[in-house]
Amino acid sequence: MPLLPRGALLAMMAAAAPLAAPVAAPLAAQVTVTCDAALNSEYQSRGLTATNRPVIQPDLLLSAPVGRAIVTAAAWASIEGGRYDNPRHHISENGGTGARVAEWNLYAEGTVAFGRVSLTPGVLSYVFPNRSGTTSESNTVELYLTAALDAPLAPTFTIWRDAHAIQGSYLEFSLGHSMGRFALGAIAGANWGQAFGDGGPMGYYVRHGITHAEFSAATSWTLRGVRMTPSAHVVFGRDPMTRLTTPERSTGAKIWFGTALGWTRTLGRRVNNPSGDGAGSAAATTQQVAVSK
After folding, report:
1. CATH no. for residue 107?
2. pLDDT digits over 223-277, tens only?
């Protein structure tokens, strides 16, 4: 099933981090390289359990200013940590075939700030290199648009439109608040055309409307240029598919944990921004809308 490459804790931190205020100059005319590797207790995305055992989820992002926009290109993967092949207890994207890449994504987007609002259109591809479980029949492409407001609780709204496998939409609204090294986040998701009756066997949900709500808390610190961000998440499922924790068990609340190591380097030089058009705000928020996925 195509799932948002949220790399869990980055998504939560994205929701919880406040947007930067518009700045005039200087503007960083540079390429920013970000590498992250998350170890999560399971793979949860859009309220659904894709893998219910530990996964490693690395990503690589390249961001650079282009005119008023910040353009980002990225790659992300989910690697299952073992042979999760117990048919009663395991949910596995690669069908329990062993420790290997079960999903990888490529995406590109551009963020532009308009006063206190930033808009981010993008395109996201999903590839499932599996012989069993979620196979290449589920490969797809999504188009998405994120709107983020520079305001208390950093309200953010995103809509994804499947352009190949299902052609339905998924919507998500998030709020967040940071307090020094600590951050709190809340996400609500909704299905709009991705139920089984809409996409047949390729559907993800049973019902239309609200699918789930997720609440999260994280802290972060940096040691010699490397960020460490542990986080904890609680998912309250409304749709029956978001309540599954094993092939045979459902629950109203799912708890999962993650820890990520991150590293960022900026390449290039700094130049002045003569227009003072607030592009610096988009630069500060690129990762919020990029990996809030």
Report:
1. 2.40.160.40
2. 999 999 999 999 999 999 999 999 999 999 999 999 999 999 999 765 554 444 4
DSSP state of 180: T
What DSSP letter does each residue of 107-173 carry, written as one string?
A: EEEEEEEETTEEEEEEEEEEE---SSSS-GGG-EEEEEEEEEE-STT--EEEEEEESSSS--EEEEE
Tell whether 160 is covered by a domain: yes
| Residues with Cβ within 8 Å of residue 196, at least 6 apart in sequence | 203, 205, 206
Helix 279-290 to helix 9-16 angle (10° resolution) is 140
Instruction: Report residue 110 as tokens.
Output: 């551009």
Torsion 270-262-123-282 (CA) sign:
negative
- 49 neighbors 43 (Cβ within 8 angstroms): yes
pLDDT tens-digit map of 94-130: 999 999 999 999 999 999 999 999 999 999 999 999 9
pTM score of the predicted model: 0.83
Q: How many domains does the chain have?
A: 1
Q: How far is 193 from 110, CA to CA, in rounded Å?
A: 26
Q: For residue 242, what are its two tokens?
A: 């978001």
Position 242 in a domain: yes
Residue 195 contacts residue 203 (beta carbons within 8 Å): yes
Cα separation values, 177 from 9, 197, 262, Å: 14, 37, 21
Cis peptide before 230, with omega less than 30 degrees from 0? no
